UniProtKB/TrEMBL annotation:
Residues 7-20, 326-349 have a biased composition (Low complexity). One of its GO terms (biological process) is phosphorelay signal transduction system. Keywords: Membrane, Transmembrane, Transmembrane helix, Two-component regulatory system. This is BTAD domain-containing putative transcriptional regulator. Residues 1-23, 302-349 are annotated as: Disordered.
Length: 980
């Protein structure tokens, strides 16, 4: 499979027509200080003044001794009434005090949504507003909102050096691997910058510099904010990046990504930069450490050398510090030898990309889910058609996709990474099982990175040591599992712990999955309508078909009615936001009550408990249309406790501002996913409109409830079954693999050439070269190896007597075999088609001969002796379901042919032959019962009935078989009881 090309570190400098919302850093104003003072006064009065007034003016309202029975019969006086009212006020004060403590703890810790004080309501809202106003003087407003900015923070005292940690595990966000020691160090750093810049400015005239500041509360410096403050437009961050890219910083590292900057780094600014934080003139250097001045001077000199074209890395140069791995990016060598479960692996030339949509090629988890769901849908349609459940017989040939649908199917085959999905599912369920065995709860997981096949879970907060073979990552909020360890895991019977994980996009070779149901509030998405729709469609399609979840409800509002065929049991569409609010209010109440009744604090606890298989499935809401202000407030209130209940909200917005949004993202016209406040900049995973329609078409065509139009489709390739139709090359696939008419290829490449030929024979409509490569080399192949294989395959197959090559390309670029290359499966299909829709329709003799010849061809299952580890692409095929149905159809037709002439023994012989290849087809057993009954041998019929009962085992006899036995052998139940 092709490995998707990713942008290099320099790609951030490319011009983009994007308009992300600037991150607003709230500065402390006089109004802020005044509000904080008023809030402090109000809290002082409410927390201290109220109890003091009660004690001073009312006294202790409760009796000082144990009341007697006479107390209950005494008259209610004004004093009694005042005492009761005083108790109520004391209780209200205690509740408000609890609310203040809860809000202060949540604001200062920055972890999770504040807990709810029972029955508080308006009291807690008032406490939250007063605490926020008071803390506003010490932190930005963003610091009071739970968000992804806290992900990746380590526990004090347990953090490893940033560079070493980054080599181990990816992080989500920028500027989180290093922290300021304390506030005094930050002030000293600013003074150092001012002094050092003065020395540099003396040498460089009007050049201005800025030093990246340590984090303050939850706020971290970013190039976007620096550009917004000093250049007037956050989008000019690219100019700062261009001036400083790859220049050596004081700590020896380099700026390689615009979103990856660290405290203490120095940034040269454009000439028109303005602001008090900048240094642009010499002077006032007294008292500044010489080391700091030297750092600024050295950095300024590195800029001169860069502009002069000097190579800082040239032999003999003074710059020998290695460039570290960026702290927030997965290490590039994290899984050498293993493709990421988020990147396709086949390298192909551009000519072979013709017609295949890149969005599906670059979404391996989404492609694997869609491909698996499509296969299940087609198998279900085949079986329902076989038993005549809907509309009549469609035959065993599903419709062959054409046009955009065919291209989409090829892209799914090339891009899918089913092994990556399997390992992800195995890893998550294995983690849940091990935690349950240790009587530990599942930790809250905000996100996951897939890097080189390794899995990194990012926790909301430290959760102790992970169970083996998991290990801690760069700090205690990261749990990591190597691919090699995941491959050794066994299947476990436990519920999917994190079904809400969904792919957002990629950063180089790493894929980010966000756990939507764990978000502490609403996730908002801004951008152009078409871009938002493509992102929403990708999220909905992956959630509906992914392989790491069990049950799930996905509600689509404002889009996606056409997507429901992908998973009718999961996807539902609502017409309006009003319907959504009504639905989610009811479900939120129900889930809160269910959790309380079960005694669980969250759905994660329930998923490892006794009820894990029946409850606590997530409900994810995707609202593409921007809600009104009132609806947004309502949704924010519902989402405030949603993560505990297993409910997630992704809401689109046109303006980029949504009330109550905890995490804000933007998708750009260039396909980038941005979240400046969170430090995210990814290649977004999208499903554009044209590809969405093509994928939906595949599912609609395979819908088992869809009435067939016209006669059953003919096989894609019909063989001349007369004596004159002998092929030049004949391959036997039904049973052991054998080729007649060709010399064996070279021993080392024989297995690969045989597998390639088998794939082409099973797809007479043509195979895209990229599909062939992805099937033969799931982990990737280079162009030269691929081209060499195709050359050998053409040479091995040779040419027909007229010089026509037996392997060629059709007008769409797909590889097709000549009509002179035939398989026994082609002959089998052609014989049955000719017997039932061709010459056999008008000639009984011809029909009998054709059906008999067809049944003789069946020697066993498809490719019965295929070597282990090869032909894995057969898991994407439905030939394993089509071939038994075809054999059963042939056996049933031949049985009917013999029973017309009352040749019951011949009919039984045909049915027995078909059952050897299709033992689970209930239709064959029914016909065998009828044929045996036609012999008039009661004992033989009873023996067959007893065999059917024994075959059913604990499941019993199927209802239709039971009804037929009642008709043909009314006494069969007594025989079954006696046999039992």
């Amino acid at each position: 499979m092709p490995r998707r090309r990713t942008s290099s570190s320099s790609s951030s400098t490319a011009p983009r027509n994007r308009t992300p919302q600037p991150v607003r850093v709230q500065r402390r104003t006089v109004g802020d200080v005044l509000r904080a003072l008023l809030a402090f006064a109000a809290l002082l009065v409410l927390l201290a003044g109220v109890p003091a007034a009660l004690v001073l003016f009312i006294g202790w309202p409760l009796p000082h001794g144990v009341p007697s029975l006479d107390w209950l019969r005494s008259e209610i006086t004004v004093s009694t009434f005042l005492n009761i009212l005083t108790v109520v006020v004391w209780l209200a004060w205690a509740q408000f005090t609890a609310c203040v403590l809860v809000e202060v703890k949540a604001a200062l810790s920055g972890v999770g949504v504040p807990g709810r004080v029972p029955g508080a309501g308006p009291s807690q809202l008032l406490a939250r507003q007063l605490v926020a106003a008071l803390l506003l003087v010490g932190a930005t407003a963003a610091g009071l909102t739970p968000g992804l900015s806290q992900l990746g923070h380590s526990v004090e005292g347990g953090q490893k050096p940033a560079v070493a940690a980054a080599r181990q595990t990816p992080g989500l966000f920028a500027q989180q691997q290093e922290r300021a020691a304390d506030g005094a160090a930050a002030v000293a750093a600013q003074a150092s910058v001012a002094a050092a810049h003065a020395d540099a400015a003396h040498r460089h005239g009007d050049t201005k510099y800025y030093r990246i500041q340590p984090p303050e509360g939850r706020h971290h410096d970013s190039l976007w904010e620096i550009a917004q403050r000093h250049l007037g437009d956050g989008r000019r961050y690219k100019e700062i990046y261009a001036l400083n890219k790859d220049r050596v910083q004081p700590d020896g590292s380099r700026l390689s990504e615009a979103s990856l900057i660290r405290p203490g780094w120095i940034m040269e600014m454009p000439g028109d930069a303005r602001g008090g934080d900048l240094v642009e003139a010499p002077g006032a250097t007294a008292g500044v450490p010489a080391e700091v001045r030297r750092q600024i001077a050295d950095y300024a000199g590195s800029g001169d050398r860069a502009r002069d074209g000097a190579d800082a890395h040239a032999p003999g140069g003074t710059d020998t510090a290695p460039a570290p791995v960026p702290a927030q990016r997965p290490a590039a060598d994290a899984g050498a030898g293993h493709p990421a479960a988020g990147a396709t692996a086949t390298t192909t030339g551009s000519a072979d990309s013709f017609g295949l949509p890149e969005a599906l090629l670059g979404a391996p988890l989404l492609a694997a889910g869609l491909l698996g769901a499509l296969g299940r849908r087609r198998r279900q349609a085949l079986w329902q058609s076989a038993i005549g459940a809907v509309g009549g017989r469609r035959g065993t040939e599903p419709p062959t996709p054409t046009g955009d649908a065919a291209d989409a199917q090829d892209a799914l085959l090339v891009g899918a990474d089913p092994e990556g999905v399997r390992l992800l599912d195995l890893s998550l369920r294995g983690l849940a099982a091990r935690l349950a065995a240790d009587s530990r709860s599942l930790p809250t997981v905000y996100a996951a990175w897939l890097t080189g096949g390794d899995l990194h879970l990012q926790l909301a907060q430290p959760a102790g040591k992970p169970p083996a073979p998991w290990r801690l990552g760069q700090d205690q909020t990261f749990w990591t599992l190597a691919r090699a360890d995941a491959e050794r895991l066994d299947d476990v019977d436990t519920a999917a712990p994190y079904p809400g994980l969904v792919s957002l996009g990629t950063l180089d070779d790493s894929r980010l999955l966000l756990n939507l149901e764990a978000v502490p509030g609403i996730v908002s998405l801004s951008g152009r309508e078409a871009d938002r729709a493509a992102f929403f469609a990708s999220v909905a399609a992956e959630l509906a078909t992914n392989g790491w979840s069990d049950r799930m409800t996905i509600t689509l509002v404002g889009f996606g009615e056409d997507l429901t065929p992908l998973a009718p049991s999961r996807l539902r569409h609502l017409d309006s936001v009003d319907d959504l609010v009504e639905t989610m209010e009811a479900e939120t109440r129900q889930r809160r009550g269910a959790l309380g009744a079960a005694g669980y604090d969250s759905v994660l606890t329930g998923r490892t408990g006794p009820a894990r298989h029946t409850r606590w499935a997530p409900h994810l809401v995707l609202l593409a249309a921007q809600p009104s202000a009132a609806d947004a407030v309502t949704l924010a209130e519902l989402a405030s406790d949603a993560s505990r209940l297993g409910i997630g909200y992704l809401v689109g917005t046109e303006t980029g501002e949504l009330p109550g949004a905890s995490w804000e993202m933007e998708v750009t016209p260039e396909g980038r996913l941005l979240a400046p406040l969170l430090g995210l900049e990814l290649d977004a995973q999208l499903l554009p409109a044209a590809q969405r329609r093509a994928v939906v078409e595949l599912f609609v065509e395979a819908d088992p409830e869809r009435d067939p139009q016209g006669p059953a489709p003919a096989p894609p390739f019909l063989v001349d079954v007369s004596e004159q139709g002998r092929p030049a090359v004949y391959a036997r696939l039904v049973g052991p693999y054998e080729i007649i008419g060709l010399d064996g290829p070279d021993g080392d490449r024989s297995a690969l050439l045989h597998e390639a030929l088998a794939l082409l024979l099973l797809h007479r409509e043509g195979v895209h070269p990229r599909v062939l490569c992805a099937a033969l080399w799931p982990r990737g192949v280079t162009d030269d190896v691929r081209d060499a294989l195709l050359d050998r395959l053409r040479e091995w197959l040779g040419t027909d007597p007229d010089g026509t090559p037996r392997l060629s390309a059709d007008p769409t670029g797909r590889l097709v075999l000549a009509e002179s290359v035939v398989s026994d499966l082609d002959v089998l299909r052609s014989l049955y088609h000719e017997a039932t829709q061709g010459r056999g329709v008008d000639s009984r003799v011809v029909r009998g001969r054709l059906l008999t010849d067809a049944l003789v061809l069946v020697r066993g299952p498809l490719l019965a002796d295929r070597p282990e580890g090869r032909y894995r692409w057969l898991t994407h095929e439905i030939i394993d379901a089509r071939l038994p149905l075809l054999v059963a159809d042939i056996g049933l037709a031949l049985s009917a042919f013999h029973l017309e002439k009352e040749r019951a023994e011949k009919a039984i012989e045909a049915l027995d032959a078909a059952l050897n290849s299709a033992p689970d087809d209930e239709r064959l057993w029914h016909e065998l019962l009828r044929a045996t009954h036609a012999t008039g041998d009661g004992e033989r019929l009873r023996t067959l009935a007893a065999g059917l009962v024994a075959r059913g085992g604990a499941r019993g006899v199927p209802p239709r078989t039971e009804a037929l036995l009642d008709e043909l052998l009314p006494t069969w139940r007594g025989g079954a009881t006696a046999a039992g």
